[in-house]
Amino acid sequence: MPHPSHRHELYTVAQVRALDRRAIEVLGVPGFELMRRAAWAALSSLRRHWPQARRIAVHCGPGNNGGDGFLLAALARESGLQVEVLALGDASTGDAVLARQAWKDAGGAARLWQVGGALPEADVHVDALYGTGLRRAPEAPAAALIEAIHASGVPVLALDVPSGLDADTGQVPGAAICAAVTVSFIAPKRGLYTGHAAERVGVLELDALGLPDTLWQDTSPDAHLLTAAQLPPRPRDAHKGTNGHVLAVGGEHGMAGAIRLCGEAALRAGAGLVSVATRAGHLFALNAARPELMAHGVDGPQALEPLLARASVLAVGPGLGQGAWSHALWLTALDSGKPLVLDADGLNLLSCEPRRFTQPAVLTPHPGEAARLLGGTVAEVEADRFAAARTLADRHRAVVVLKGAGSLIAAPDGRLDVCPWGNPGMATGGMGDLLTGVIAGLLAQGCDAWQAACLGTGLHARAGDRAARLGERGLLAGDLLAPLRALGNGLDE
Question: Which interval of the chain is the signal sequence (predicted)?
């Protein structure tokens, strides 16, 4: 298992390969020995997750990932399992040559995959086709094998990386294994934690192959996984004035719900006071539904300015719209110089009028909004979410939360954290409005932009997971408010 000091560190593929070379060249661990340790780790994982399995099919590619598979096959046969090996080709490379020979010496045979051929009967399929080596779509024969494995309905154990998944970006450029379990080796690859990886990785385990802590010396991780956190307890003499005043700006005609969710989330996150600047027609509904929000009808910049003067933090964008009223409030709010969180139409307006922020600022785009800010397409954003988030943070001098499966939090100095929580039930209207309010509420209580973005993203996602215990489908944004309060106070429900 990985050393505790490294288990939340994420690395690029190039960094992991450098660690692998360091283990061989500096620490003196032969490559074949690393392969043998990976095979033992994989067999242990298989036994834990499928203790009743008696037949396994191991699918081996030509490289070192295939070598892991050949050695796993030999160990599994030695332990009493029925094993069949299906190979993509009749030759292997590097240390995989020795692994293939070890399988042959143990009496095993490797059947070559033929497109349209039948798969072996198995209780578990083992994916040892490509590992980290593939950055493009698999070629036709491999793609056909991957599709046949999917069609079998048999669970898959992936070795290191589900084949076809880009371990650097989480992108899936073509056919890709959808694993029930992935056991990854040496160090966590960043692409296994974001984007399409959520659908492909399954249960993710990490085994450092018994390598010493010195392996990681002089190697700074590319990113980190968020860890569960909450604010410290409040001083006993705290009052509402010591916990900040959030002003939520938005709610064009017909969009009162967005700004209400934002304001209520700021309250539940602990802000002392929350005001709402919105259309006058929304005041009755807001006061009736949540009287703790101080709702104000605002018809233009002059009406907004006294509210800005009293606020310590702004949340701009939920339900804001992009018309003349919206633009005037947006511009006035941004020019105030107050710390702010910018979301939704606040980001769409920013894409038309870019600026670099001098005040503390957090931007919370989904991939579509990120694409507009970058002048590209959603596909380009999703092709490398890490690069997109870092580019936006640098361009606007703001902390950026790039939402989605495995949300990313990027700072202008290059720091990046990945959120390991959240679920598909959160893909529904209003969730982003909540996140905006949560982050603003944390800013109001004294967090800096980076702290508020990381803590707020984590609390929001963890609250979503708590709320999804009754099922993901049908989850509402408002369902997160109760668990959000509990988690923010470090309490179990």
Answer: none
384 assigned to a ligand binding site: no
- 290 annotated as a binding-site residue: no
The percent of residues in the chain predicted with pLDDT above 90, rounded, is 90
422 is in an annotated binding site: no
Whether residue 241 is annotated as binding a ligand: the answer is no
64 is in an annotated binding site: yes
Kindly report, residue by residue over 132-166, the tens digit of the pLDDT: 878 889 999 999 999 999 999 999 999 999 999 99
| Residue 405 is assigned to a ligand binding site | yes
Reduced DSSP (H G I as helix, E B as strand, rest coil) percent helix, strand, coil of the chain, to 5: 45, 15, 40
Confirm whether residue 403 is marked as ligand binding: yes
pLDDT-derived band of residue 241, with 50, 70 and 90 as boundaries?
confident
Q: What is the DSSP string of 176-215?
A: ----SEEEEESS-BGGGGSTTHHHH--EEEEE-TT--GGG
Query: Percentage of the chain with pLDDT > 70?
Result: 98
pLDDT of residue 335: 97
- The answer to whether the annotation marks 250 as part of a ligand binding site is no
Q: Cα(91)–Cα(194) distance, rounded to whole angstroms?
A: 34
Ligand-binding annotation for 28, yes or no, is no
Q: How far apart are CA 272 and CA 446, in angstroms?
A: 12
Report the pLDDT value the prediction gives residue 1, as an integer from 0 to 100: 45
Any known ligand binding at 433?
yes
Q: Is 67 annotated as a binding residue?
A: yes
What pLDDT band is residue 6 in, cutting at 50, 70 and 90? low
Whether residues 246 and 279 fall in one domain? yes
Partnered with residue 143 across adjacent β-strands are: none
Q: Which of 174, 193, 224 is the last residue of a domain?
A: 224
Q: What gap in Å lies between CA 194 and CA 268, rounded to an integer? A: 28
Place of tokens 């001083």: 235
191 annotated ligand binder:
no
| 289 marked among binding-site residues | no
Judge whether 448 is annotated as a binding position: no
pLDDT tens column, 249-306: 999 999 999 999 999 999 999 999 999 999 999 999 999 999 999 999 999 999 999 9
319 is in an annotated binding site: yes
In CATH, what number is assigned to the domain containing residue 455? 3.40.1190.20
- Known binder of ligand: residue 65? yes
493 pLDDT above the threshold of 60: no
> Per the confidence metrics, is the pTM higher than 0.90?
yes
Residue 135 assigned as binding residue: yes
Please compute the mean of the pLDDT values over residues 89-93 and round it to a whole number.
89
Could you list the residue range(s) of the whole structural domain that residue 124 is in? 4-224
- 404 marked ligand binding residue: yes
* Residues 249, 216 share a domain: no
Asked if the structure places residue 230 within a domain, the reply is no
Residue 423 is assigned to a ligand binding site: no
Rounded CA-CA distance 65/34 in Å is 11
